[in-house]
Design brief:
two-stranded antiparallel sheet; 5 helices; 10 strands; about 20% helix
């Protein structure tokens, strides 16, 4: 996918990881039961921090999302094993991983779609999409009927600084609708060069995003051009399968 500052690429909220190159045919299979290849992330990466936004109410919808039965995070075993390598790498640098979302059932994506069609529901607009008009969300592909999260090898995460005991300052919040969420906002994510041109990120905030990005890419994940927090395992085991079993401890 081409990198662009265009608003048409502007983040797809984590729900939304279905836009751009993440879309798949509506005929894709949606199995009823979970695969035995899925694991609890905390079983593989014990010191990971979980803040599962879609289990609570602090998210762009403003309510618990369908299919999130427990505040836990699941991934395919392949993705979880790669994430363990990421964690080991970053712990040596003084950071822990903090996860907002991982596997997302198809019913959760369907919940996002229903919300997007309800133009009167703007409860969380000022927190996540103050500069967007809700009736443009489908046109601009913020919302789609499929998400890479439902394939089980995609996750949304940030870094926790063990020295300050706070989240690392990334210059923007998870699930923010806007160009500020693009990895190439204020710099070149490929080289790590900060430009600051036409943006509000500081050099340190941009550098913090690069720390996360480089660790993820070094251990088999690929980035998403519209969200600095979103990564997918390159060799995902279910590239064409969208699961619908609920999020709960396995």
């Amino acid at each position: 996918m081409k990198k662009t500052y265009s608003i048409f690429c502007t983040l797809m909220l984590g729900l939304l990881a279905a836009s751009c190159s993440q879309k798949s045919p509506d005929t894709a299979a949606i199995p009823e039961m979970q695969s035995s290849d899925f694991v609890n992330i905390t079983d593989v990466v014990p010191d990971v921090i979980l803040e599962i936004r879609y289990f609570g109410t602090y998210n762009f919808v403003g309510t618990r999302i369908d299919g999130y039965e427990q505040p836990t995070a699941l991934l395919t075993r392949e993705a979880a094993d790669s994430l363990r390598a990421v964690s080991d790498d970053l712990k040596a640098q003084g950071y822990r991983l903090k996860i907002y979302d991982a596997y997302r059932p198809q019913k959760g994506v369907d919940h996002f779609v229903r919300w997007g069609k309800d133009l009167g529901d703007t409860l969380m607009k000022r927190y996540f999409y103050p500069n967007e008009v809700k009736d443009s969300l489908f046109i601009k592909e913020y919302i789609a009927t499929r998400s890479g999260h439902s394939r089980g090898s995609t996750l949304d995460l940030t870094l926790f600084d063990m020295d300050t005991e706070k989240e690392l300052d990334m210059g923007g919040t998870f699930d923010w609708f806007g160009r500020e969420s693009h990895p190439d906002y204020c710099g070149n994510p490929e080289t790590g060069e900060y430009t600051g041109q036409g943006g509000t990120l500081t050099a340190q905030q941009f550098a913090n995003r690069i720390i996360l990005r480089r660790a993820m890419l070094a251990h088999g994940f690929k980035p998403y051009d519209c969200e600095w927090w979103h990564f997918t395992l390159k060799k995902e085991p279910y590239p064409d399968t969208y699961f619908q079993f609920p999020v709960r401890e396995l």
